[in-house]
Amino acid sequence: MPPPGGTPPPHPPPDGGWGWVVVGAAFISIGFSYAFPKAVTVFFKEIQLLFNTTYSEIAWISSTMLAVMYAGGPISSVLVNKYGSRPVVMVGGLLCCLGMVSASYSTNVVELYFTMGLICGLGLAFNLQPALTIIGKYFYKKRPVANGLAMAGSPVFLSTLAPFNQYLFNTYGWKGSFMILGGLLLNCCVAGSLMRPVEPKASTESKNKVGVRETDCSMKKRQKKLSVWEEINKYLDFSLFKHRGFLIYLSGNVIMFLGFFAPVIFLAPYAKDKGIDEYSAAFLLSVMAFVDMFARPTVGLIANSKLIRPRIQYFFSFAVMFTGICHLLCALAEDYTSLVVYAVFFGLGFGSVSSVLFETLMDLVGAQRFSSAVGLVTVVECCPVLLGPPLAGKLVDETGQYKYMYLACGAIVVLASVWLLIGNAANYRLLAREKKKSIHTKESQETEPLKTSQSPSVNIKSGKNEEWKGAEVNSSERETNI
Amino acid sequence: MRALQGLRGLGAVLPLLLLCFLAALRRSLEHGLSTAAPFKSLPVQEEMMTKYSNLSLESHNISVTAAPFTSLPVQEEMMTKSSNLSLESHSISMTAAPFTSLPVQEEMMTKSSNLSLESHSISMTEHSNMPVEKNITLERPSNVELICQFTPSGDLNSVNVTWKKGDKLLEDNYLVNATGGTLYTQHRVAVINSKQMGSYSCFFGEKKQQRGTFNLKVPEINGQNKPLITYLGDSVVLMCKCQDCLPLNWTWYGGNGSVQVPIGVPVNDKYVISGKHANETRLKITQLSEDDQGTYLCHAIFELGESEGHVKLVVLSYLVPLKVFCAIAAEVVLLVAAILLFEMYTQKKKKPSDDGKEFEQGEQLKLDDSNGIENSGPRHRKNESVGQ
Prior knowledge:
The complex is a heterodimer.
Chain A: H1 18-39, H2 44-51, H3 55-71, H4 73-83, H5 85-103, H6 109-138, H7 143-151, H8 153-185, H9 187-194, H10 201-218, H11 228-235, H12 244-258, H13 262-265, H14 267-273, H15 278-304, H16 312-330, H17 336-399, H18 402-444, H19 466-480
Chain B: H1 2-6, H2 13-30, E1 44-45, E2 57-64, E3 87-92, E4 117-125, E5 132-137, E6 142-151, E7 161-165, E8 168-170, E9 174-179, E10 182-191, E11 198-204, E12 210-217, E13 224-231, E14 236-241, E15 249-256, E16 259-262, E17 271-274, E18 280-285, E19 294-302, E20 305-316, H3 319-371, H4 377-387
Parallel strand pairs in B: 2-3, 4-6, 5-12, 13-20
Antiparallel strand pairs in B: 1-2, 6-10, 7-8, 7-11, 9-10, 11-12, 14-18, 15-16, 15-19, 17-18, 19-20
Main location (chain B): membrane
GO molecular function, one term (chain B): cell-cell adhesion mediator activity
Pfam family, one (chain B): I-set
């Protein structure tokens, strides 16, 4: 059976206690990051009228925000690697506030691109990555549950922000609303202040001492070999691109995201096209968000179970396949009831994929390298996330029907799931083989200290719980199988 | 000329003469001038029913009634059941008689647009308690056929059928037909300008009257239902839109209280009226002040009347959202301070015990180095407590 998880952090994750408060803080940060770009579309009609532009020019604000949020991943990762999660999230909150307040004073669309799109997007990026990273630092055994709970922030915030934004617009107009939203985004700073760093200062110092000694004793040959490449890797771990599991995950996700978001965006227009009135069409989205809200923590719980957790990659592939099949079947939907059923199942699929999306990445690369991994993943995913909906829109324009777009998206997602399934099956098998090999070699070299490995943390692994030790031995092998 | 083309299929002589007469008079009659030749006697009524399809057709009806004209309105109807025809129709009704007080009514279709025939019907039974109403939206001049169906419980023939426009009884130009237990009555109206708009009602019976009403209206204009919130010194764009119609012209009025002042008449920088498409109008107001608050009306002018939409504007001062922002910012600062203070407090409590542990840890680590990985016991417990 494949080992349960990636490399654990140098300190045993508390797996509880303050960790649940951190989950709450991550809930807020992730909620704002994913929900905010979508929720501001409420103001666009008014702004479009005032600035006398086309709707697509205004819609680019939302896309820019999302793009910068994804593209800012590596910057965020570098900062988190250096300074930890807390300061980055607080700076992110301040940036968001600054962006929105200056957006309320803007006089044309370009200024909005800059303030809302760039500054606010960067602030949201500084919220998303650290929130995900710190969950990995605080949880190991209950990590899928923590991930599921934190990711549930996205639908909850979306369903709250959308009507709240409408209320703000009716009471304060768009300018006042932007100012107030800037204030609300300051609450990310509160979330950030809750994200206490895991290692208390005392043990960090002792760890460093030990680390230094270890380097002296056993790794004399490796001294003073910090090339440019390794310097860069200290900040952002580019060596991940040689990691087999990471590459499988990345390629599968890129394919998946091409067809993942378009069905959500086109659900309401598809319903209206079928003759359903506006309010019922909007209700479909609410149904989806509602199911999504409950699916995420539930799936997190399921993924945490003893049965699923070791095979979490397969679980992820199946969740993706489920979503893809939903899209394919949606093409058969004719009336409102079938669309509601589709919305329910889509919510389920969307929630389950999102819930384990980052958990699987953590599982593959380990909590140590997760912060760099998530930055690299988001910057690469930026392309399909942005290209997907316009391409889908073009397909709809060409064929004149939404059915073909749903079929295409479903096919792409199913393809991604098949690729992930095959890739991960191969990966698991290779990892098991490598583990067996290393156990054999280990048995023959029992008294010697561990072989040279990349992370000094492996040397200090002793002394933790027994389970931990077993996991560490296995995971160190996984780490070395690059 | 179009006039000559269509006549090929007809071959009626009298209309030809009148046609020439009409063609000559066309331009002058456009502007509503009335000419009336003193026809002294006979009612001449001719109606040309044309049921040609796929012809470009011109039909000209003149119904001239001359009779004791003291109070009767002259009414002329043009019946055209032409489908797929480009049709030009001209009709003149002339009245001749003691002209002292009679209004001369002439209606002339000057805009030779496709006069389509619209048919609307209401059906009622004897026992329908509520009056039945139907709203008909008309934008362009057209022929409207209003049909009422009535199913009486008793005898058909004893039911009296009347039509009214508003409160005025209509004398003629409606047909009554009875087939298979249902009474049909049909009234045709050529809607050419706003005078023909209004409510038309059909009444069945004497004692217990059943009433069906057709409301002919111009299209409605959508302003903005919710008030627009703006701030001092800002600019705002007010928009009125008509869904499927093309008004001839738009005008804006600003209402401060009950006084309605047209906007944009002295053209200045403050108000800019524009509109990207014919079915919408935009009013941009810059340099907003408190006085600009209130309801703005956009008037759309159609051939058949006028319609208006409302947009309400509210002007606030910047302090209003600023106060909310400051309140939220204060709350955030308080929470962050509280959380950080709490954290420092709990860490201080741990600190004195931490120093001692660190020393021991160092010793243990030295031992571990030499012994290998197996010495797990004491360090395990300490690290657990530190980690928490």
